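Hey, can you fold this one?
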Amino acid sequence: MVNQPWKNVLVLGAGKVGATVADMVAEYHGLPVTLCDARPAVGTAADPLVTRVQLDVEDDAQLGGMLAEHSVVINALPYFLAARVATAAARQGVHYFDLTEDVAATRAIRELGKDARSTLMPQSGLAPGVIGMLGADLASRFDELYDLRLRVGALTRNATNSLRYNFTWSIDGVINEYCNPCDAIVNGELVSVQPMEGHETFTLDAESFEAFNTSGGLGTLCETLKGKVRNLDYKTIRYPGHRDAMNFLLHDLRLIERRELLRDVLEHAVPHSREDVVILFASASGMRDGRFEQQTRVARVFGSRLRGKARTAIELTTAAGVVGVLELLQQGKLPQRGFVGQEQVSLADFLSTKVGHYYASLAVSAEREQALA
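Sure. Predicted structure:
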């Protein structure tokens, strides 16, 4: 199956992001997509390119049978199903992508990649995902890299509650990144730092933000840049006050020890919102051509329509991350087998894909910086 033309794409998980991935593949590549979910499709209009199917991925026979009919699978299911689906895909030689931020799942998939006949590329969304490409691109511009700071936020544009936050994506994903240890490089050493720590404040275009450690955003970038950078970290951007409120829930009330209860509380009390903005902010400093320099990249992405449907910024940026690398693999610009990390993807190549325009402001910020040099 490897190196042969793709006839169709399998997308697992028909939530907001999974459905956006399916529509993005259909819109920009014209490939038939099978969109699977544990829940039956109800009230969906007939679509010539996207076919909705009910599937239980925890049933080995059902999952194996569906994989056998497709060239590539994009897993948009919860993080705890990543290793299961990747194992089944590797067994059948099907190219595998996912959007997980879970470190343990990625390590398991990396092991599978050692003997895989197909490409296994987890963490292919926004963060981890495109932010890793951006970090690697900035790192490559320095003769000696001192500090690399990567920041991403999926924010509600009009948050009015005490958390200064509404859910714009998975509750399970937010809990996972707020509760698990975070990779970083400090003084040249690969270390594990605690989530919710490393609090900082800053302004962008006269608007105030805060940021703090969260898990999984760097993907495998720490391992790739170990020995090449003095300090590297990833933090999530939020509005000021959010971190203190969440810290009270997690640690003062000790809900970090009762994650199911924490999920119930958040699901009941914190609204979801489709009025969002995604912010990427990256900064690198070091020696270049004999002098100490700093380079920064900033992007703001808002929602828009895709195949006649309104999509949020987080849906579009996450889907574009995986659909872009899917295109690069099909073009032969990525390894055709084994584990592939996001930092192996050229940012310029990614921005030149059919979906790269969703991150066009990253290219604009780079051009402005070059004009000022």
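The mean pLDDT is 93. Let me know if you want another pass with a different chain boundary.
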